[in-house]
């Protein structure tokens, strides 16, 4: 089964996807993660990508579709993919449909994580993670524990890392792009009858439970 985890930046798409990876052994295809991996390569393309991403704008569909097709075509992940951060506009959604049908696959479920805009800025701008184990924290809602209290011995020498696009000015741009370009494509999936709404204002555990019950109902 292929799933799209849909919602604004800060809705918890990455967090919930990581549980599906752990518990259901699904493959998380996060376009944001693929792009951040490309940034580390310091290629010519990476300089261009960094400028776009630091402004909170969308990377071109050609680059994104190329990254996606490389993964969809891999037999090891066939019909077991969570699309996280993709599609983000109607053209990407249509390209996804054609790529999936080329490899004999479909989208079975779109989980729409709903969160009020008022808390998204704090959820994103407070986001930090351990440089060693990558555990996420939030400076406002879930402050990082002191490294000396960390259960993981390896993390004692950690730094806290922050994504360069998780700052307040970029966040407001990312949220406007979501409202104007990404949110309207829910209609595209509603017509197909595959959308389930999830109240992502609730605790992480409650959201996970709701997602699991939606998956069991399929
Ligand atoms: P994310 O990790 O999903 O928040 O994505 C971080 C940034 O990567 C976004 O603000 C965009 O600049 C870029 N990006 C990620 N996914 C896409 C996509 N599907 N289409 C265009 N740009 C994307």
Describe this protein's structure.
The chain has 218 residues and is an alpha/beta fold. The protein has a domain at 3-115 and 181-216: P-loop containing nucleotide triphosphate hydrolases (Rossmann fold, 3-Layer(aba) Sandwich). Helix content is 47%, strand content 15%. The chain has nine helices and eight strands. It has helices spanning 13-24, 31-40, 44-54, 61-72, 90-102, 117-125, 168-182, 186-192, 204-216, and strands at 3-6, 27-30, 81-84, 109-114, 127-130, 136-138, 160-161, 195-199. It has a five-stranded parallel β-sheet with strand order 2-3-1-4-8, sandwiched between helices. It has a three-stranded antiparallel β-sheet with strand order 6-5-7. The longest helix has 15 residues, at 168-182. The N and C termini lie close together (10 Å). The mean pLDDT is 93. Adenosine monophosphate binds next to helix 2 and helix 3.
Task: Show the helix and strand layout.
Elements: E1 3-6, H1 13-24, E2 27-30, H2 31-40, H3 44-54, H4 61-72, E3 81-84, H5 90-102, E4 109-114, H6 117-125, E5 127-130, E6 136-138, E7 160-161, H7 168-182, H8 186-192, E8 195-199, H9 204-216
Parallel strand pairs: 1-3, 1-4, 2-3, 4-8
Antiparallel strand pairs: 5-6, 5-7
The protein binds adenosine monophosphate (AMP).
Adenosine monophosphate binds at residues 9, 31-32, 35, 52-53, 56-59, 64, 85-86, 88, 92, 165, 174.
